[in-house]
């Protein structure tokens, strides 16, 4: 099934229907959106001009930030009913305090 879905033929069909192809087949890219009436006379080649940037490198403090965001911000918004800006500001303060404490502990 996976091989069939990845085949150039299926990718071309999906591309004509407006789904971005996941293979490097140039024919699939060139046929993007051709089956959709509203996309005629549009510069559809622009979808394929950009390249995806490499992800930002991880730091030793990413775990602190991710854990705090999940435990404090999301909980604060979903459970405690805080507004988004307040929850994010409080999480940022907590993250900065934890990073400073971690740096001080390593000295």
Structure description:
The chain has 107 residues and is mainly alpha-helical. It is built from 5 helices and no strands. It is elongated.
Write the layout of secondary structure elements.
Blueprint: H1 2-6, H2 8-16, H3 26-30, H4 62-78, H5 84-106
Helix pairs in contact: 4-5
Question: Based on helices, strands and strand pairing, what is the structural class?
Answer: mainly alpha
| End-to-end Cα distance | 56 Å
The largest pleated sheet is described as:
none
What's the mean pLDDT score?
Answer: 87
Summarize this, please?
The protein contains five helices and no strands.
Key features of this structure:
5 helices; 107 residues; mainly alpha
């Amino acid at each position: 099934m996976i091989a069939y879905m990845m085949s150039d033929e299926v990718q071309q069909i999906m591309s004509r229907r407006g789904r971005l192809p996941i293979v490097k087949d140039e024919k699939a890219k060139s046929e993007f959106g051709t089956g959709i009436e509203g996309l005629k006379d549009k510069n559809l080649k622009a979808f394929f001009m950009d390249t995806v940037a490499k992800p930002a490198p991880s730091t030793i403090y990413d775990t602190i930030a991710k854990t705090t965001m999940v435990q404090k911000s999301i909980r604060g918004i979903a459970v405690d009913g805080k507004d988004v800006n307040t929850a994010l500001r409080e999480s940022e303060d907590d993250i900065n305090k934890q990073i400073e404490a971690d740096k001080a502990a390593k000295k």
